[in-house]
UniProtKB/TrEMBL annotation:
GO terms for molecular function: chitin binding; chitinase activity. It comes from Anisodus acutangulus. One of its GO terms (cellular component) is extracellular region. The keyword Hydrolase applies. This is GH18 domain-containing protein. The keyword Cytoplasm does not apply. InterPro entries: Chitinase_insertion_sf (IPR029070), GH (IPR017853), Glyco_hydro18_cat (IPR001223), Glycosyl_Hydrlase_18 (IPR050314). GO terms for biological process: carbohydrate metabolic process; chitin catabolic process. Residues 1-163 form the GH18 domain. It comes from the Eukaryota. Belongs to the glycosyl hydrolase 18 family. Chitinase class V subfamily. Keywords: Glycoprotein, Glycosidase, Hydrolase, Signal. Pfam families: Glyco_hydro_18.
Amino acid sequence: MCYDYHGSWDTSATGAQAALFDSKSNISTSYGLRSWIKAGALRSKLIMGLPLYGRTWKLKDPNVHGIGAPAIGLGPGDEGTLTYREIEKFNEDNNAKVVYDAATVSTYSVAGTSWIGYDDTRSITMKLSYAQALALRGYFFWAVNGDQDWKISKKAKQSWIIS
């Protein structure tokens, strides 16, 4: 389970809920996976869990919207959560600005004071490349019914090279 690093339990700042890397802390997928491997877990037994939903915040200032931006509460969705399908609709309906963050290998959208951190096809592809470089057994999505027209699932299937 390589997600839920940030969410409704801390509404003071936005966060990459499934960050592959975090230069400011050890709350990241890379740190977690490497810790398991260092502790002796067999790579062939490790599976990377990826979310098909995002976490939302209400920004304190809509002009300050990067990862870690000050927030004052939950954003749209049920308890600050939207499925990927709902995120795609939100982005379209609100003409949201979509930003890929290379430092954390994650994506966020912002429209007014609404901020959503999630994974899209680009970040998922990068994360699966990372998992393959570590020689992990595979990956899973939670929950697959949140995908938009199988967009991420199909991209993941294309990205995962079975050897």
